[in-house]
């Protein structure tokens, strides 16, 4: 009977894998004190650099601080473990640097799209804003010469775009490398999709359209909230980055896309009572970007669509890869009984071996052209009997003739 083919069993990759059970060993008392001291030093250094240099909005600068934070958190681990973090994250940082640099060439000297974005926002929300673009309406009702309390919140929410995704990835790297790979693969696909759109469809934000007379006056106020605490220097790097960045990389809004992406990735990992609180983050980012003149609402909606496309495409790709790996044939070492047509099937047991507690009969050998000596006739005795299986038995009942058991004896 033909044996069933033996296939490799592969575990399917889940789009949003469930968090594993904690595997870390409890931190000893001395290690706990060392962690507290190391994290305190890191925090003081971070605040000092924040007030003097600025918030870490550059990917390389942010990576250095995140790496230092992981070293402080796991200060008892050997340096080999910390160097592994740099090895794993180096490709991610390089890709982000290339992403930031290439955005500056997205316009290719062409006039960016702006009018159709204005029309889209007016069509969707003009009935609520009296025909104005939501950015213009919000600044007319909320913007004041003096910094307001919500301006402070807007600045912090805007800054979180440069930190939250990287901090979440760092935590995943320390706790579960498989989920870190799933996170980074989706994050990279989302950034690549947005970058491709910047080249194919360069679009300008509301503050740019106002400068060229397409809208009423719109102020770019995403960093003004820090002045309320006398921390104007906190946004030095961010302000410099805004000046040097490409002003026509607005469609889609990756600020809201990153925020929604992080929330959805961890959505099933938290209890339902926290879901509403998590969803408040991308909504707060949406208000921040529209109010501060950075994006239209249509930019936000397209960014959310890109997040859904990212989870769908990468999830399907992971499932296809898992199925492909599961269908790969078993590699066998060529031997005297090797059959290339039988690769991927279970090998037959050797002669005399047992499988599942039963003896495996050996099939009759092919006739050999070399003449062989005819076996001596069986000694006289009881008449040979043939059982139902066709095996010739001689001698007393229950005893087998000389030779290999289970092999017909030619007479």
User: How many discrete structural domains?
Assistant: 1
- Report the biggest beta sheet as strand number plus sense, adding barrel if it closes: 2 strands, antiparallel
Percent of residues in β-strands: under 5%
Q: SSE order, as H and E?
A: HHHHHHHHHHHHHEEEE
Arithmetic mean pLDDT: 73
The number of helical runs is: 13
Shape: globular
Structural class given helices, strands, pairing?
Answer: mainly alpha
The end-to-end distance, rounded to whole angstroms, is 28 Å
Number of strands: 4
Helix content: 40-55%
> Which runs of at least 5 residues are low in confidence (pLDDT < 50)?
6-15, 332-373, 380-411
Order of neighbouring strands in the sheet with most strands: 1-2
Describe this structure in words.
The structure is a single chain. With 411 residues, this protein is mainly α. It has one domain. It has helices spanning 29-52, 59-73, 79-103, 115-129, 134-142, 149-160, 164-175, 177-200, 206-211, 236-244, 254-265, 275-291, 297-327; strands at 354-355, 358-359, 385-386, 392-393. The strands form two sheets. Strands 1-2 form a two-stranded antiparallel sheet. Strands 3-4 form a two-stranded antiparallel sheet. It starts with 28 loop residues before the first helix and ends in an 18-residue tail after the last strand.
């Amino acid at each position: 009977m033909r044996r069933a083919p033996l296939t490799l069993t592969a575990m399917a990759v889940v789009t949003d894998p469930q968090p594993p059970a904690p595997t870390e060993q409890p931190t000893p008392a001395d290690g706990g004190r060392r962690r507290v001291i190391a994290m305190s030093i890191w925090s003081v250094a971070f605040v000092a650099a924040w007030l003097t240099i600025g918030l870490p909005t550059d990917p390389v600068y942010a990576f250095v601080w995140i790496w230092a934070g992981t070293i402080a958190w796991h200060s008892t681990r050997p340096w080999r473990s910390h160097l592994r973090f740099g090895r794993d994250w180096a490709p991610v940082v390089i890709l982000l640097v290339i992403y930031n640099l290439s955005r500056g060439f997205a316009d290719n000297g062409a006039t960016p799209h702006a009018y159709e974005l204005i029309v889209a926002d007016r069509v969707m929300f003009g009935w609520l804003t009296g025909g104005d673009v939501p950015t213009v309406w919000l600044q007319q009702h909320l913007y004041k010469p003096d910094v307001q309390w919500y301006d402070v919140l807007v600045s912090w929410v805007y800054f979180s775009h440069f930190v939250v995704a990287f901090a979440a990835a760092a935590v995943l790297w320390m706790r579960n490398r498989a989920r870190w790979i799933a996170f980074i693969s989706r994050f990279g696909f989302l950034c690549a999709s947005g970058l491709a759109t910047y080249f194919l469809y360069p679009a300008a934000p509301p503050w740019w359209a106002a400068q060229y007379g397409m809208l009423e006056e719109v102020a770019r106020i995403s960093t003004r909230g820090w002045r309320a605490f006398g921390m104007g220097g906190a946004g030095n790097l961010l302000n410099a980055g805004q000046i040097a960045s490409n002003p026509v990389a607005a469609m889609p809004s990756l600020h809201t896309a990153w925020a929604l992406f992080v929330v959805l990735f961890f959505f099933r990992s938290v209890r339902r009572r926290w879901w509403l609180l998590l969803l408040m983050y991308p909504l707060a980012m949406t208000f921040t970007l529209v109010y501060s003149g950075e994006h239209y609402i249509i930019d936000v909606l397209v960014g959310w669509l890109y997040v859904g496309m990212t989870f769908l495409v990468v999830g399907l790709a992971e499932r296809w890869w898992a199925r492909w790996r599961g269908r790969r044939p078993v590699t066998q070492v060529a031997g005297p009984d090797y059959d290339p047509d039988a690769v991927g099937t279970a090998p037959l047991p050797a002669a005399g071996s047992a499988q599942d507690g039963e003896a495996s009969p050996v099939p009759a050998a092919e006739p050999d052209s070399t003449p062989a000596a005819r076996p001596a006739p069986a000694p006289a005795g009881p008449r040979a009997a043939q059982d139902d299986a066709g095996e010739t038995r001689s001698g007393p009942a229950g005893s087998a003739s000389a030779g290999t058991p289970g092999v017909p004896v030619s007479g």
